[in-house]
């Protein structure tokens, strides 16, 4: 009998192989389990749907890249590392990113990005319950997400560091110091207000 961890790994690897050929919305659970050599019952013991499998695989990439901010990597290095991972398996991400399903990778990335940004701001004393703060952050994240998805879809032709510079320019100026200022912590004597 296959252990649960091994099932997760086999399903993730099967999905990755398939995504290098077919968009996520055109794949079925049957396709994935056939590729993995597992049963549908095994799939559904592990995941609710194919999007949850994709998102779990993406979370593992985040654990070794973006989630290292601010403890081990600066914002620039953490973001550069996630974009490098995406570019390294570009076809997979091109086929994964365009779905508009409620559980899609695109929506998952938005939720993760929002949570990460809010946690950094909250750690630095910003009132994240303020509706203006929330809407300012949402507009920044939505805009960057759309630009990132188009960049991936178009083959990431622009260099990562140059695209990252453009996208970082859109961080609301009142929040930029917490991300671009080095370690994601409040700078002594710096007051920040977006109001």
Write the layout of secondary structure elements.
Elements: H1 4-19, H2 29-36, H3 40-46, H4 50-63, H5 75-88, H6 90-97, H7 105-123, H8 131-153, H9 160-168, H10 173-180
Helix pairs in contact: 1-2, 1-4, 1-6, 5-6, 7-8
Structure description:
- This protein has 195 residues and is an all-alpha fold.
- The protein folds into two domains: 1-47, Arc Repressor Mutant, subunit A, CATH 1.10.10; 50-195, Orthogonal Bundle (Tetracycline Repressor, domain 2), CATH 1.10.357.
- It has ten helices and no strands.
- α5 crosses α6.
- The protein is globular.
- The model is unreliable at 182-192 (pLDDT under 50).
Structural class: mainly alpha
Radius of gyration: 18 Å
| CATH third-level topology of the largest domain | Tetracycline Repressor, domain 2
CATH class of the largest domain: Mainly Alpha
- Low-pLDDT runs: 182-192
Order of helical and strand elements: HHHHHHHHHH
Range of strand content:
under 5%
Largest sheet: none
Per CATH, the superfamily of the largest domain is Tetracycline Repressor, domain 2
Helical percent range? 55-70%
Name the overall outline: globular
Instruction: Provide the CATH architecture of the largest domain.
Output: Orthogonal Bundle
Number of domains: 2
Mean pLDDT: 91
β-strand number: 0
Number of helices: 10
| First and last CA, distance | 59 Å
């Amino acid at each position: 009998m296959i252990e649960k961890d091994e099932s997760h790994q086999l399903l993730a690897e099967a999905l990755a192989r398939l995504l290098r050929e077919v968009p996520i919305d055109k794949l079925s659970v049957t396709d994935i389990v056939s590729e993995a050599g597992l049963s549908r019952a095994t799939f559904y013991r592990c995941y609710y749907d194919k999007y949850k499998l994709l998102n779990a695989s993406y979370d593992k990439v985040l654990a070794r890249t973006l989630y290292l901010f601010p403890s081990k990597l600066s914002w620039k290095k953490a973001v550069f590392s996630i974009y490098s991972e995406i570019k390294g398996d570009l076809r997979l991400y091109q086929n994964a990113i365009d779905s508009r399903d409620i559980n899609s990778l695109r929506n998952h990335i938005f939720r993760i990005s929002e949570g990460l940004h809010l946690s950094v701001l909250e750690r630095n004393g910003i009132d994240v319950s303020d509706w203006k703060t929330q809407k300012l952050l949402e507009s920044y994240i939505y805009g960057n997400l759309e630009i990132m998805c188009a960049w991936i879809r178009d083959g990431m032709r622009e260099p990562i560091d140059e695209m990252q510079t453009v996208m970082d320019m859109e961080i609301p100026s009142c929040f930029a110091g917490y991300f671009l200022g080095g370690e994601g912590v409040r700078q002594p004597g710096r007051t920040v207000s977006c109001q």
